[in-house]
């Protein structure tokens, strides 16, 4: 909705014969099996499918075409209150941001643990990490408000979306 349908004011329910919500991976396998014509998914789910390397995963990947990719959407951030005690914040940070980092036997063991849950060492982020999530939420609110033809809700959602875009524009270009 955020990057493809919403900005073009396309309602998927009017664009497709059938629209249903479901688990991204289940929908991916349904497309591969010919049950669904199209589906949305995310990069991590696609990467996990590749990592599986099972006959079913290989068959699914061979039978689908990726027709569009969105910008990277942050996942699973850990957040804390702004008023958290600085000493506790430092202790938590030290643990998470050093876990699985380095060339020691302990770091190697920790990376193996992280690999079992299909993740890697944690990386430092700041409030800007959540801008894409806020953008998705504001876009969803805007689409719903337009669907209800609610001018006040449209104005509120548009203001939220404009604020996110202003913050994104202020970020250094990488």
Can you tell me about this structure?
- The chain is an all-alpha fold and 174 residues long.
- Helices cover 54% and strands 0% of the residues.
- It has helices at residues 12-15, 24-32, 43-52, 55-62, 86-98, 105-116, 131-148, 151-170.
- Helix 2 (24-32) crosses helix 4 (55-62) and helix 7 packs antiparallel against helix 8 (151-170).
- The longest helix is centred in the last third of the chain and has 20 residues, at 151-170.
- The protein is flat.
- The two termini are 25 Å apart.
- The model has no long low-confidence stretch (mean pLDDT 88).
Element-level helix/strand string: HHHHHHHH
Task: Determine the number of helices (DSSP H or I, runs of at least 4 residues).
Answer: 8
Content of β-strand: under 5%
Structural class: mainly alpha
User: What is the share of helical residues?
Assistant: 40-55%
| N-to-C CA distance | 25 Å
Average predicted confidence as pLDDT: 88
Main sheet overview:
none
Instruction: Outline the low-pLDDT stretches.
Output: none
């Amino acid at each position: 909705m955020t990057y493809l349908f919403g900005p073009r004011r396309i309602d998927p329910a009017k664009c497709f014969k059938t629209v249903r919500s479901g688990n991204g991976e289940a929908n991916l396998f349904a497309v591969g099996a010919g049950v669904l014509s199209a589906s949305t998914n995310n990069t991590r789910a696609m990467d996990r499918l590749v990592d599986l390397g099972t006959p079913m995963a290989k068959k699914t990947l061979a039978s689908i075409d990726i027709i569009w990719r969105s910008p990277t959407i942050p996942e699973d951030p850990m957040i804390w209150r702004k008023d958290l005690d600085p000493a506790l914040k430092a202790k938590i940070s030290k643990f998470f941001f050093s876990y699985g980092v380095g060339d020691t036997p302990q770091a190697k063991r920790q990376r193996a643990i992280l690999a079992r849950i299909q993740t890697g060492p944690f990386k430092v982020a700041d409030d800007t990490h959540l801008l894409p999530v806020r953008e998705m939420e504001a876009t969803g609110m805007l689409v719903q408000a337009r669907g209800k033809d609610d001018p006040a809700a449209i104005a509120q959602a548009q203001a939220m979306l404009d604020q996110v875009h202003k913050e994104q524009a202020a970020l250094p270009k990488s």
